[in-house]
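Sequence in, structure out. Go.
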Amino acid sequence: MEREKKRHRNTAQTTNDTVQIINGGGSDRLRELPKPILYSILSLLPIKDAIRTSVLSHKWKNVWTKIPHLNTDLQSVLPRRFPYRKATKKHERFIYGVNRIFIHRKSLIQRFSIEADFCLCHNALDMWIFLLVDRKIEELFLCNQRLTKESNKVYEVPNLLLNCKSLKLLEIVDCKLKPPPNFKGFSNMRTLKLNQCVLRDSLVQAILKSPLLETLDFCDCKLEPSSNFVCFPRVKTLKFNRCEIAEILIESILTKSRCLEFLLIDDCWGFNHILVSLPNLRVLHVKCAVTVHLEKTPKLEDVLLSPTFLCKEQEDDYRAALSDRKIFWGHLLRVETLSLGSLIIRGLGSIAINWYSVGTFENLSKLELGILPIEEKDRSMVSNLLRVSPFIKKLIVGDDPHRHAIESYCEDKYWETQESCHCLMKHLETIHISVSRIYLLHRLYGRPGYEIARAGPIFDMEFAKFLLGHSCVLKTMRIHMRLLSHNRKEDKDVIRADLMRVKWASPDVNLIFP
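Output:
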């Protein structure tokens, strides 16, 4: 009896405590958050979920009408299997809902994002853009998602949006921009992102005149040369993704855009070589099959070179160009971060660079190599890079994305015969190794004359054991395994046991297997 009374008292006390925590002393604790924080939380939700918060209580009824960012997505309100052949009641309800949003929203809208098939709501979209410009929109994201094969007509952005003086960020996907004859650039634009857009030469010329434009991003676009094109005079961040660029155009951009600080060229074509002469450039990332020559880049800190090839002939041409251009000369030796893809390491290894004539990376503190598993002919290249980089603090060794199979695996004593170098003895503190695949190779096991063939996993941990055995100040070695294997735990145990057999040079190493 006494035990039963005690249990009831504990249950009642727990219930009272829970109610008090939920009520927050009689107040809505989430509602009492500072308004900027509350609006930021709701801005992360799709607009339909933000509107649903109005049913929580009377205080929440109009909160969603004041959030500065509105995210509208047509696909979020349609079922997965939907006949996207023509406008239906679902589309009409979507348009009606967005119209109601503008009716309830009388305040300024800082950011508006819409993802839909513009072919099914182009008339309504024209009206929404008119209302957004009237309410001084600052950031706008337009994503045309073609849901039907019949949606072949490209949506043309209204001219009034191009003349919007309050617009600071504009991102457009799969639309057409046709500027008016009197268009002289975006007066207040800071960031412009164009993806799969039809670009006229007059638009590119007008972009040059935008006085405050700092970030420019082209994706899946074709940039044609112009006789009077000079450069992007004020742009600090420039990105080209999957673009066709004429050689004369890229040459003009990379030698005359004096304010440029960040440059990305990813999977582009139309040119084979780039000459970079930009005095303020700090970051250069090139992910296409072009050779790079650095001439006047005194502030360059971060360089990534990772070419991709479509055929064997293209790779041979690239390797020949490497030996002629000598890309490791000049200001590249002054960088602090260097990332090299497997194909460029393979190409540099094949031309037998004389590192003593090239020089050393005196400022390099972070080196990233996408080379695993390391082939026999590439090991000397990796070893030499460590030797000419005496002050490396962080080393990242990743997977070779272009390797799909191993023809042969040589279990010799190469890394065991290599001596230590200055960076391993004095500076290297962090190592990250990423293993994403297991390579199975049939090898012979057993006594001589009684061998049997079995498939064994290849992890290529010889390089990791070399690093553990010679890195005297190493603090962390992180081995990330993204293996598509049912025996993932067993694979980790095999690697861990293999590394534990090595005599570690540093007593403070933290070996991590996330």
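Check: The first strand starts at residue 69 and ends at 73. The chain has a mean pLDDT of 77.
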